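Recap quiz, item 2
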Amino acid sequence: MMKTYLLSIFLLLTYCSTILSGQDVSSDSASVSANGSAYPEKMKSRQTWERILSFPGNLFYFPIEMVFKGVERTTEYLDESKLVYKIFDKLTTDDGLRGVRPYYSSRAGGGIKLFQKNLLNENSKLTLTLAAGLRERRRYELRLKRVQFPGQNILSDYKIRYQFLSDESFYGIGKESQRSGRSNYAHEQIVITSSFEKHLNRIWSVNALIGFEENEIQRGRDIEYPSTTDLYADEKLSGLSTKNRMGKVQFTFEADARNHRGQPTAGYRLFFGSALYQQVDDKAFGFWKFSADFSKFVHLFYNRTIVLRVAGEVTEPFRTREIPFYHLAELGSRETIRGFRRGRFRDEDMILGSLEYRYPVWFHTDIALFVDAGHVTEDIFREITPRDVQVGYGIGIRLLGGEDIITKFEISNSREQLRVYFELNPDL
Amino acid sequence: MKTVSKKDFRFFWSEFFLCVFVSLFATCLIGGCGGSRMFVPPEPVPDDRRPVPESDEKEINIYADNVDKLVSKQIGKLFDTSQHVRKAFGKPKQAYNVDAFGEVPNSSWFTNRNGSQCMTLEEISRGPNTGMGPDTSGTWKIFRAKAEGVTPGFSIEDKHGERYLIKFDPKGYSEMATGAEVVSTKLLHAAGYNVPENYIVYFHPRILRLGEKVKFTDKKGQTRFMTEVDLEELLGRIEYLPDGRIRAAASKLLPGKTKGPFRYESTVKDDPNDFIPHQHRRELRALRVVAAWLNHYDTKANNSLDVYTEEGYVKHYLIDFGSTLGSQGNEPMPPFIGFEGSFDLFQILKQLCTFGFHIRPWEKADPIQYPSVGRFHNRDFNPQQYKFILPNPAFQKMMKLDGYWGAKLVMSFTDEQIEAAVAQGQYSDPEAEAYLIQTLIERRDIIGRYWFRRVPSLDAFELENNSNGIQKLCFTDLAVATGLESSDESRYRYRLKVLPGNNIISRYQDIGTTTCIPLPTPRKIVAELQKGNSTLPSEWQLQVSLLVKRGNKEKWSTWIRVYLVIEEGVNEYSLLGIEREG
């Protein structure tokens, strides 16, 4: 039985060999002649031996092909039903001034962002962000941006935000904090701010901000880790047990010489400011926060860009008052060292350096390779020890659209863990 | 019940592989011994312009087609063992619809024009046009419009009842898209493809009349009835001439019933005339060469149209050439066009892995010199590496011989013919026009050099009698005839062989720069064979193998074999066919 089978395979392959030796075209062409019917016989795109030879591969590919067919049919349906158009049509007005966009941020969760442009003046924008995530995480924010006072070269910005960050991490204070010391807490916060910006020239601007915030630390919602409220119940962790209301006054200088807002390839951005936080319903908390942030974008060649960033933050108690732990300078997550979790390192002061190399790989798609390094310390001017510098590195992909980044996906690694970040329509 | 033991199983596989290897060895042997059999001319391809019942209208969804061509088909190809086997053995699948001389017969797809007989400049200029275009002396009634995409357009009916699709130039790039539409139409028509009648027209917007219940696809892709406001908005996006007129390309609606686009693969089931899989049609495979010449990167199925003609067959047209030469319709050609497809995974991975240090040629884009031409140049132009918007199944099947045939089409255009075609674009800037002509000529020559070096360009074989009555086989070296190579530096050699069998009459002989070979009489052949104790079979053919060499440094080319047969009663050779190594 087996021998017969093998013989047939041999004969088949020999037949294929004969065809391969140069007879294929003419044999195909011979089939063109009419087969008795009025019209010529349709020619096969593959000969029999080709179909037999390809059969195992086709069999293997069949389920994959079915998946693709499904994708094709879905795409076809979406296009022909104009579903995407209809959704965007429903989400955006004809003049494009009012609309809704999806929103996602790892901190706030997913949701929607409603916007109304040119509300009070040209370029002003009112946005309402509604986002929610796992473990009751949520953020609601109403923001009115770039409102111009009549006859004045002053732009104002107003924001009211409620957020409930249900599983923030706390590892202790100081550079020696251990990963194993992770606890979690929920942070309920209401923030109201008004800021006023005056452009001194095309690059420089000054900004004054007054604000109010209410903070309350609650039991963490992540049951895998102990709650910070339990773990530090007997210890004195500033800001843990009391609800506080704080006022904030901040002055900043900012220089923005970037050539593009979402994905600059040249120029720089400099920010330095000082803020005073004072508890308004008591006198327990009060502190200064001084911060500086400088980013330089160096265009290498053909849209390949190096981004160098240096930032620092100093938090100092105001008189004898205390600094709530959640307002300490911190390192971790996407704005600082991406290889660490948010709040992984906290202390009064922080210094950060970041080097990023961006290069295009496809239309509107860039890759970013980055290294972040930073250090928290009680006093930045006295103790910076290179061996305590924390380092993270990674790779990211950004999908660009016009002036904005539409999607950002980053993978970062550090000595502790690998972290993944995804953002959709992030705030710039 | 008998169970298969592990031993049996192992035996089966070892025997199986033995069989495979023996078969492959046999293939090599048989393949290696090729060339001693008689040449069998292919059966003539039946005419596909016979009356057939009307077929259904087809639609191809552009997005589903993208998924199919960009992802599904590309992955599927990896599993296609027969393709890999063919590739491994160097036995590509040749086009089905060629005659004994590698030429394509006239069909509903293609008509031999400039490639077979040099067209006059008037013929080139006229192209497919049968009239003068829409009459601007009367009003134009708009009966359909579109605003989706960046380039708006509408369909009109002139006072004679003739219907045209009107397309415009984008703002800031006057003459660019309309010029490209018309110039490419002329060249593709002369090459042999079916194209619509395209005219440059100048009209005043006051002749436009909005018809009743004009279906209109708005910017959001929604279809509704058009209003005067829509028309006003649409005309606001168009470039105007200083005298208030508008320049446009008017594409005459094709005569017959439209049946939707054709695919560049397989056949249409309900069209009995469509019996050759499209990917195996030489004219569609070779369109890759012609399209690369014209920077016609958008050769997807949706830029084609099948029309059921009054004669009762389906005619296959290429349409929409606004995205050719330096124009992308709504803007100048982006720099990457021709270098990368719409999703080029290989390039993306290459870029990813080289950390951006690999600079793609298109990234060094020059600024646009002439807005009326757009971005069209010959820098880094490689006809074989040219990338189209989507992988095209017919283009992917293109073999060396198809490429050579396509190059012949392109090289058939003289400088004067190109000038005549470009003149129809009615460019107002003579410098821009000269630049476009020069670029087309240079790209044409790049194509010629590329293909004529890969496939020897000896062609147009014919038999001549000299004064002594001895027959000669003469040929034209296209590379020399088109000025790509010098005749002084081109050397030829030939070998004569009687088929069937391995009866070599004369080993390879150099004939220098001569392009005619004296043929031995049958009597001489008999004498030669007798020297080797062989006899002339009753049925035999004379095989003339030819090689060419350019200059002293290059190697001899691949072979071309010309097959000759003695006609009964006449005692003279006649051409039976040719074969090229491909």
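DSSP finds 14 helices and 18 strands in chain B.
Chain B has a mean pLDDT of 88.
End of item.
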